[in-house]
Design brief:
With 173 residues, the chain is mainly α. The protein has 5 helices and no strands. It has helices spanning 2-41, 46-69, 85-120, 134-164, 167-172. The longest helix has 40 residues, at 2-41. It is elongated. The chain starts with a helix and ends with a helix. The relative contact order is 0.16. Residues 168-173 have low confidence and may be disordered.
């Protein structure tokens, strides 16, 4: 049962992460277009400039769970890298239970009114010619937290399997 939860969570993180990874290419192309249009033709577009910011936010916020799944997130590992797999698993379990999940839950909860207020007025850019989708951008906050919670639970279960040294947990790794 735990393997199904772990595999399901990791499948979600992988699909979303690989999808939004393509946004980095789009950001690069748009940035090149912005530079050529501005300096080569004297043209500019606030909407296109803001779209690069939106894409960056989507890559960062929707790709966080994928990065966490692959253990590619920033880690201060002065001691951690020398730990045995079992000790690392304990650190990951305790870190998930006492830091990751509470932080994500609190941030998701606190963002609800913020996002709802933005949706009520269908908040738009303050810049003339900017994108009219600030409310969608703000919606990424609770989505990111939800995805990190799902991946965090999967990570805790996976590491619990390492600690308990069960056959099914090794298959999930």
């Amino acid at each position: 049962m735990f393997n199904k939860i772990i595999c399901g969570a990791e499948a979600i993180s992988t699909v979303v992460g690989k999808f939004v990874a393509w946004f980095t290419l789009l950001m690069m192309l748009l940035t090149c277009f912005i530079v050529v249009a501005r300096y080569g033709f004297g043209m500019g577009s606030i909407a296109i400039q803001e779209s690069v910011l939106y894409l960056h936010a989507m890559v960062f916020m929707l790709g966080a769970a994928y990065t966490f799944k692959d253990d590619e997130h920033v880690r201060v590992d002065v001691f951690y890298r020398e730990f045995s797999p079992r000790k690392k698993a304990w650190v990951n379990i305790l870190g998930g239970l006492f830091f990751l999940l509470p932080f994500c839950g609190y941030t998701a909860y606190m963002s609800i009114d913020y996002v709802a207020a933005s949706w009520r007025v269908l908040e738009t850019s303050q810049e003339p010619g900017g994108l009219p989708f600030i409310y969608l951008l703000k919606t990424l906050i609770p989505i990111m937290m939800g995805m990190l919670i799902i991946q965090g639970v999967a990570d805790i279960l996976k590491n619990l399997g390492v600690v308990l040294n069960t056959k099914s947990s090794k298959e999930a790794l």
